[in-house]
Amino acid sequence: MSEQTDHRTTSVIRRATPADVDAITGLIYELAEYEKARHECTVVPAQIETALFGPAPAAFAHVVEVRADDSAAPVIVGTALWFRNFSTWDGVHGIYLEDLYVTPEHRGAGYGKALLATLAEECVAQGYTRLAWSVLNWNTPSIGFYESLGAVAQDEWTTYRLSGDALAELSELSELPRQAG
What we know:
Elements: E1 2-5, E2 10-15, H1 21-34, H2 45-53, E3 60-67, E4 75-87, E5 92-102, H3 111-126, E6 131-133, H4 140-148, H5 164-171
Parallel strand pairs: 5-6
Antiparallel strand pairs: 1-2, 2-3, 3-4, 4-5
Helix pairs in contact: 1-2
């Protein structure tokens, strides 16, 4: 957990807790709006709670919590939602950052960098060899930010996705027998 303090605010980067689920879900919707894809975002808080805190967590999250002064309630102003991936070449896990988002009014305060540094620290502590994420090609402010940290674009790769009808149709195409279990 890292902490920043000035005369007006105290900010903390910490692991998310179940009490943060609604705030994280709201930030996901803000990110979807920013990415011009709000119509594609259908997640509900119960799904986020299960993914992060259910019996078999599939994802993890850190949040930026800001308190304007000692008497104010803290507010979640940023999040990094991530999961472990695996490198067959390195033979160890890494972190895939699914979402990094800081509210517009809190950008420029170092919170995005602090969230990424926290994930880098997690990678190093766990012996992971990679921290990876995707960014939209038109998002030049984020691209510049990532490059300023030493991140390298993986331009030789193209990301593919199956979803909706195409996913359902492919799931029915296997012609080989399947072994139970």
